[in-house]
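Structure ticket #2291
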Amino acid sequence: MYIQGAVEGAANTELGSRVFVYEVVGLRQSEETDKTNYPIRNSGSVFIKVPYNRMNQEMRRITRLGGKIVGIQPSNALQQVNGKASSARSANTEGNGRATPVASQQPKNKETKGNTMTQAKAKKEAHADIPVNIYRPNAPYIGKCISNQELVGEGGIGTVRHLKFDISGGDLRYIEGQSIGIIPPGLDKNGKPEKLRLYSIASTRHGDDVDDKTVSLCVRQLEYKHPETGETVYGVCSTYLCFLEPGADVKITGPVGKEMLLPADTDANVIMMATGTGIAPMRAYLWRMFKDNERAANPEYQYNGFSWLIFGIPTTPNILYKEELEEIQQRYPDNFRLTSAISREQKNAQGGRMYIQDRVAEHADELWQLIKNEKTHTYICGLRGMEDGIDAALTAAASKEGVTWSDYQKDLKKAGRWHVETY
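Resolution: structure written out below.
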């Protein structure tokens, strides 16, 4: 899954000792924001370091760009959202060196794509040992493409590729639910090197070959019509990846992300709601839970809980990893349930297209009972439009018991049991 927007430095160089960090939501990627000197990550928050003497000016500029300041803190707070300083290594800018830790680089990543992504905050103390930012943009890991396979069947819409990269030559480590950055070659429209794009990892920590030497992504080629000219525009990085030849080098950063991590409890219930390439982290979870070679490699993690994937796609050929998912369902009928919402082939109760929120509405009472279980974690990944429908369905189910869903959901987030990554 692609997490739109580059994640690089979060601020200008500090001017003097009085520097503050603005937490901003609502910024949109546009021609105007492309001119800014901080990245617009299309995530839940953008963190901008601002010298005291420019605070008012920056407030006006953020407002002009459609943003809203939701928090202002002294600059030392940025170190807290960056995690422990010890997670960054000493610099080596040649080859596969690891970057020098930079205080203004990437605040705690919400690893999301999409405009103003909603996302519950992971508990920092619970994930203190998670690997983050082993490789940074100024010294990326140079991996190599091993394979690039089409996932969309004949008659499906668009192209989605499963890419596997060799990472055996460095120190890149990750766990399920994290993301890596990809830096495409070339220059952007302003003549500057292309910025990295984040993608959710689609493989387990051991890689598809269970040898700790690879990392995999699930990438859809971004394609849209220019709003003014009507011409077809293709995403820079997604197009680069979708047509990447085996053997080609690729610049990788990361890993990043602590929000979408699986619970360590092997008896946990896991509800997964995904659209399109939002299947990427879900694939990693399911492979860790159910694949024979993965279970053999993880004697300490033998999953015994119940997992349910509700997957939204436009057509049957667009069901990504279809054969593998159906195999898991066949082999583990008591532990895994697969429900599809195929928008261009199925009808909802009102006779319209069947979207993921319609499936959630169909099963809302059952999902609500499962969510109330303290062992249940819910993961949502994909198009941001799915969230309102999901909330509406669960609001109706919770209200039957006199529970206000919005309040209950806040408690789930605080407990680290509600995980969202939408774009």
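Closing remark: The radius of gyration is 21 Å.
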